Fold:
Amino acid sequence: MIFTMFSDKRGLDAHAQDATAEELAEFIKTTARDARDQLPLIKLALFGKKRSEKGCLRHDDNVTEITGIEADYDGGMDSIEAAAEIAWQAGLHCILYSSPSYTVQKPRWRLLCPLSGAYPPKDRDRFFARLAGLYAQHGIVFDPASWALSQSYFVGTANEFAPIVVIIPGEPIDRLEALDDIAIGRPNGLNGAGNGAEGEFDERALMEAIISGANYHRSSLSLLGSWASCGIGMLDARERLVTAFECVIPPDRDARWHDRYGEIDELLGYVYGKEADKRDDEVEFTIGGTTASQAADEAPEQASSVSVAPVEEWPEPLGLAAYHGLAGEVVMAIEPHTEADVAAILFQFLTAIGNALGRRAYFLVEDTRHYPNLFVVLVGKTAKARKGTSWGRVRQLFEGSGWVLHCITEGLSTGEGLIHRVRDQVIERKQDKGGVHDVVVDPGVDDKRLLAFGEEYARILRAMQRHGNTLSQILREAWDGKRLEVATKSAPEKATGAHVSVISHVTRDDLFAEMDETMTANGFGNRFLYCCVRRSKLLPLGGPINGRIAAGLAARIKAVVDDCPSGEIPFDAAAEELWRARYEHLTADRLGMYGAITARGEAQTVRLALIYALLDRAQFIGSVHLEAALEVWRYADASARCVFGDRVGDRIADAILSALRRAGPQGMTRTEINNLWNGRVVADRINAALARLTAHGLAQSAKRMTGGRPEERWHV
Structure:
């Protein structure tokens, strides 16, 4: 089965997946979140990269292929067992699972029907008409939203009950051509938008389709959508539909159809959404027991030309491009079973695999070789961000390899200590009775790969501030791939060809307290990728990755490492064109501490692109690898902006800026600024800080004439 998973209802990221029916069923059964809105959504289709104005990928215009059809039953009358029996009798291959709102008293369920292959989006209605006709024969009518091309559905549970999941073996619905005889698709030549031959809205044709009883759900939705866009009120629309529905659902029908007005209210609730909350008390607008606002959450995002508010400070989630290839498969295998942020999983996996690959392949920039070693810092709340949990999940995919056993160290304190872990062999010439001989006094370390997992980044920063500590210098040289050595007699060890990577964790407050201007100015800070992380969900008991999936991923990771090519991995033509187009943006000047921290954007991006290419076992970096790298860098850049904001890295300047913001529109006089330190900071130091704020455009001063000396007042 090929399908797309969305992390949540916003649809900001889309992950294409390939799994067996059994694997998907297991995923549905084991996926649990604290609230329904935190559940992932599934769609049997593939999506492109076209985003709506809100950044959503989950809309009709972005569907490139369909790989199956889905149906949603919210009627609350027919059991999932009855639905399974219908599919079994028809020989239909499908998966049925209970909705998050399922109860025994009011059963609600979804049906996933994979196709034998990919089809163009226009074919979906033809196959769905077969399914709708099959179940309509048994009095089961699917929710109208099931017809929507990009409609996606929550999977998993948000309560203490595990979902019911049933797999029905059989034929894909595209091969069950006999169902065309009972299909209730789009009759009377109507197209999906309800447009007439002249391209104008044909209300009469849709009303006739409703009265005929053929596809009245779809026709009603088209009518309501047009009426709503024309400003026709909800109650007026309801009155119009009642007349047509009297013909569709006469009183002498089966008891299933007794709630004629409820059927209308379902459609109104779906189309009018939040306006339904303003209804008269005697009218209950729901969608098969689901509130209109809940339905709107699951409804596909529609592209809009309306401008939206700026994004919140927290970085926009990683987009689909970042989940290319094996990296994306690893993230999606781990994500359902951990509270860790998907960004934390991805960044640490890229760092781990980049180190395991070693110094065989590189990307050449002029005379500089960029190897696939990364330095990453995860920034989040203590304990709550699940930073350490995310590393444990990634590491388990490498367990049993020589790399895990010999190439991971915890903690960093001195440059000399780091060099010792990857030191060269030491040979000395010694003379004995037999003459002069070369003697190995230290065998050194054969495997020069080293992943330093320093869980507390703040400790690393504090260690570097101690007098004589060489850690900052050695880490910078290690990132650059240079020979590592400390030029003192007390530290004679050297390391040639070391391949060092770093993963560390920190809270934002600790980062503020310990990262200073020197660490950003000397290039230490910008050798790290910063990644904002937070707990993604509540999983009190967690859960293991499916054993077969984990074993398969581990085997593929091993094959990637074993078969890593040697030598230069250049851009192909398409990637080179994309690189030229994005280079200016990557190298643009940025102000303040944020600018200093992100100053190596182009170098970080090519390293990321190299890793993605090596994961594909490619001899060239293609545009897809570069697009993945650019998206990861975008998130790292946004994380740095989120963490450092417009700090300038000068403690005095940042303190003044904070005070000015607290002061509000009235600002502060120069005397009030001087008094922030009660005379403990000299005037020249404050002058320099104010000059820096002015240069960065963060503060400005104005002089106001008084009866005596002019008053100097500062504002942000």
